[in-house]
Specification:
The chain is of the alpha+beta class and 402 residues long. 63% of the residues lie in helices and 7% in strands.
Length: 402
């Protein structure tokens, strides 16, 4: 039984680790990645410059010189860490990210502990921002909540009052820097997604062109091969030049038609007609010595299915010419179905492969289905069905193949 509560892996979760992999995989190489890192590092550099004021306050304080010098050194290390963390943290492993946040947090909190002043905890805004960047949101928010509550409790115990202005700065600056990281993160992922969409679109277009080339040239080249063999046999057996010239003339016309189809397909202007495919199938089967039993009219076929059914007839007849030892090929059509069957060996069309795969894709595009396999009376059968018609267009079930 499937777990209906299972979460989509692409769905946001407060417990997931921020994925900055687009900095490694982003198209454009190191220069593109460097711009993103430089933007964040610049923001943290500007933020670190605000640490100059706490340094001045520590220097002009009344603490012992050794403690004062140590506190200033810790603030300087804290500033450097805030600049380097956005550069190296996003591509670090999870344990390394935790270590980076912990070290920066300790460096930021150490001056407040050394000087016994909760006011310096306000400078932890930058450490909390790094936490928002590198840790799951749930952990980063918990760290921020503990820091704010710790500053409030410490102020209440040490001074019997809370400097709400400093607490507000701690919350506001953390939120502002966290927003900068979130925007950079979102923009980076949007760019990576856009490049992925471009690649998928190119691949899809390549598959479409390859499928169209197979459908167009496969049938024509198969027919031309048969007619060339017929021309050779005419010249070898009877030497009837006039009959051979007639076959060569038809070959020339077919080659020109194939070239025109290729040009039209590449230009995406080509439309295929079921009637023309039936006429071409009749000529190709006749040239191969296969008796053709084709419908006299196709007016009952729904207009939106005529083109895809034309591809079905083309590919199925091509498979008869290529793979079958049949003597008869039968085509039947209905409002939302088409069937092509032959009386050859039942396994003769089993390895048709790419062509039938392409037909399946075409029918899926119009919500149709394709079936193929041994025919009930022997031979091989391909049957395509379109989507169910509207009630007023429903065909009589007596005419649909079982």
């Amino acid at each position: 039984m499937n777990d209906v509560r299972a979460r989509d892996p692409d769905e946001f979760s407060a417990g997931q680790w921020p994925d900055w992999s687009f900095w490694k995989d982003q198209p454009g190489g190191p220069r593109a990645r460097g711009r993103g890192r430089l933007a964040i590092a610049t923001a943290m550099t500007l933020a670190s410059l605000t640490l100059i004021a706490p340094v001045e306050g520590i220097a002009h304080g009344s603490g012992p010189p050794l403690i004062t010098a140590l506190a200033i050194g810790l603030v300087a290390c804290y500033g450097v860490g805030c600049i380097l963390a956005p550069w190296f943290g996003p591509v670090a492993l999870r344990r390394e990210r935790i270590a980076i946040v912990a070290v920066i947090f300790l460096l930021g909190a150490a001056p407040a502990v050394l000087l016994a002043s909760p006011s310096y905890l306000t400078d932890l805004t930058y450490a909390l921002s790094i936490g928002l960047m590198l840790l799951p949101l749930r952990h980063a928010l918990l760290l921020g909540l503990v820091t704010v509550l710790g500053q409030i409790v410490w102020m209440r115990l040490a001074r019997s009052e809370v400097a709400w202005a400093q607490v507000s700065i701690l919350v506001a600056v953390t939120a502002a820097l966290g927003t900068v990281f979130a925007l950079n993160f979102t923009i980076g992922h949007l760019r990576a997604a856009r490049e992925q969409v471009k690649r998928l679109a190119v691949n899809q277009e390549r598959e479409r062109v390859a499928r169209d080339m197979h459908d167009i040239l496969g049938h024509t080249l198969s027919t031309m091969t048969v007619k060339l063999g017929l021309t050779r046999r005419i010249l070898e057996s009877s030497g009837d030049v006039a009959l051979a010239v007639g076959q060569v003339t038809e070959l020339e016309n077919m080659a020109r038609s194939a070239l025109s189809d290729v040009r039209a397909t590449v230009s995406d202007y080509r439309t295929l007609s079921l009637d023309s495919e039936l006429a071409g199938a009749r000529m190709a089967l006749r040239a191969a010595g296969v008796r053709a039993d084709l419908p006299a009219a196709t007016l009952t076929v729904r207009a939106e299915l005529r083109e895809v059914f034309g591809y079905v007839v083309r590919e199925a007849v091509t498979n008869v010419l290529r793979h079958s030892d049949a003597e008869l090929c039968t085509v039947r059509v209905g409002p939302d179905w088409v069937e092509v069957a032959d009386n050859g060996s039942s396994t003769s069309g089993a390895d048709a492969g790419n062509g039938l795969t392409g037909l399946s894709e075409r029918l899926e595009a119009v919500s149709g289905t394709l079936g193929h396999g041994p025919a009930p009376g022997g031979g091989f059968r391909v049957i395509a069905r379109g989507p169910a018609p509207a009630p007023h267009l429903a065909p009589s079930r007596k005419t649909e193949p079982k």
